[in-house]
Amino acid sequence: MHWKFKQFEELTNQELYGILRLRSEVFVVEQDCVYLDADGYDDKCFHLWAEHNNEFVTCTRIIPPGVYYDEASIGRVIVAKSMRGGVLGKELMRRSEEALYSLGYTGPIKIMAQSYLLNWYESQGYVGEGEDFLEDGIPHRIMIKVP
Which domain holds residue 122? Predict the structure, then answer.
């Protein structure tokens, strides 16, 4: 497993393509959700991903404070279907949080979690806020993790 962490401007064409392809495979095709993934935030964010056997297998978008929420955020959290069921998701979140803190951020992390994953995020230290709401037709809930 080879991990990488880069600002948007540092991504090569191949890296950007790999990230966007993985996001489309999971969020658009697998979840049958037609939405515009290129939402205007990627160029303001950092991107963390891992490659295994030259395939993109997991990624997140790390959003600095003030870009989407007042707090920093981790979004577009993906583990490829072929890699689920182990500890890769937990490692992805741990590495994403560490990446945020390596940038000097010390505050809470706010995420928009798909509701079916609430228990999983709770096991990572996140606490739900408010009620579920629909985002692109999929139930979500805001969650916060305080360091």
Answer: 2-145
